Known about the structure:
Low-confidence stretches of chain A: none
Number of strands of chain A: 6
Radius of gyration of chain A: 17 Å
CATH class of the domain at 8-33 and 82-172 in chain B: Alpha Beta
Helix content of chain A: 10-25%
CATH class of chain A: Alpha Beta
Low-confidence stretches of chain B: 1-6
Mean pLDDT of chain A: 94
Shape of chain B: elongated
CATH superfamily of the domain at 8-33 and 82-172 in chain B: Hotdog Thioesterase
CATH topology of the domain at 8-33 and 82-172 in chain B: Thiol Ester Dehydrase, Chain A
Oligomer: heterodimer
Order of helices and strands of chain B: HHEHHHEEEEE
CATH topology of chain A: Thiol Ester Dehydrase, Chain A
Shape of chain A: elongated
Distance between the termini of chain A: 26 Å
Number of strands of chain B: 6
Largest interface: A-B, 44 and 48 residues
Amino acid sequence: MTAADLDWNKITVPVELPEVVDHISYQRVVENAGATWDYFPGHFDPGYAQSQGNPTIYVNTMHLAGFADRVATDWAGPSSRVVRRSMRLAGSVYAGDTMIGRGRAVAKRQDTSVHPPRCLVDIQIEVSNQHGALCCPVELTLQIPESA
Amino acid sequence: MDRDLSYRLTFGTYDDALRLVGATSEPRTAATAVSGARIQLFAAMVHDGNRSYWDAEFARRKWGGLLAPPAMLMGWLIPPPWEPGGRPPAASIALRVPLPGTTFINAANDVEFLAPIIEGDVLTVVEQLVSVSPEKQTRLGVGHFVETLETYRRQDGTMVATCRNTLFRFTPGAAS
């Protein structure tokens, strides 16, 4: 379910975003290969993943990015757009894990280098697993509409 | 199992790799246009109900068509898992850097989305090898960090995204 659109003028920072929790089954990991055509064997072949030193198959960068984007746009609404995302793959999310996404909007700014100026919100997101390990710290910037 | 075909890495020494730093790939154009079906397959995989991906009328008014999930950017340039007439060359310049490591895992990804990408767009990417680190030991094994810069344009030449990616090319093994 997607929230209604937020108005940039009415956002105060800092503010916590609603937490998003998602259980990642084997099917979900394999769905990713089908959706993105990323058939690197670490994403569908447990034997290959183990040969790399992993316990089993793991989600790819695009899935983690999509989860982070979902944390941001579930909050801001479908008229917002991700204009920048910086993520570090600190630890893997394996089939059977649960991803927990916690976001915090930390700054509001207007980009006046373009016309009309863009209304932006900077968000920090942490994607952790069910053990509390930080798997993926993310810095993300949303462009959000403002009311006329 | 075609893993050897799909992910045939180029092997060599660190010095071989350094000689390629700064190299830029020929432009590669996506095999298929951005499509609503793939947008929704990805959104379904992420469990993302964003109307920009699902509500064609809303998306047409807001973006000019169904919006490609920003997270899917790299996926549009991955060749399909099979094509008539044999496979195209390995997808990314990052995999063709000559190094000793037998496998790889992604380490960092930094993207700017300059303009919305919507259904019907056909993307072309140019990749540049930015840097290759000296040998590093991590919990996964010994290897090198390979940094690339990808520039994505749509069919009218507009630059829609730039992506700086770092992967770790390594040989698995416990710390020595």
